[in-house]
Amino acid sequence: MDEKLKSLEEYHWIIFTSVNGVEYFVQRLFEKGLDVRVLGKARLAAIGSETAARLKAYGLRVDFVPNKFVAEELADGLTSISDLQGAKILLPRAQKARAVLPETLQKKEHL
Fold first, then answer.
1. What sections of the chain are H helices per DSSP?
2. Whole-number Å distance between alpha carbons of 9 and 89
């Protein structure tokens, strides 16, 4: 994660899948002496309303929240509002999280 924080301005999307993911991401950002300005023009997605609310608590506007809070719905929704081909996507999440979201996004990037 620390390496990714150095190049946040390169990302088109940052996708948060949990409140814990938001907390960890923002904590590491602050610990590195950075703030939300380093997000540049990255658009933000949250997999649920609580995750979106946590991002908003940090002053971050969420660009997309799917109607159903599951990975497949998030991936489908993103492709309906954004061209993902060649998009650089950051997915800060637990290492043991399901692989469905990154796998689905990778497939959609190559459509």
1. 2-5, 19-31, 49-57, 71-81, 100-109
2. 11
Nearest to 5 by CA among 30, 53, 20: 30
The encoded tokens of residue 21 equal 């993911």
Length of the chain as a residue count: 111
Q: Using one digit for the tens of pLDDT, what is the confidence trace for 2-19?
A: 777 878 888 989 999 889
CA–centroid distance for 18 within its chain? 10
Q: Provide the whole-model pTM.
A: 0.79
What the block records as the tokens of 68 is 């159903």
Taking Cα atoms as reference points, which of 15, 93, 88 lies closest to residue 55? 15
Mean pLDDT of 56-72: 86
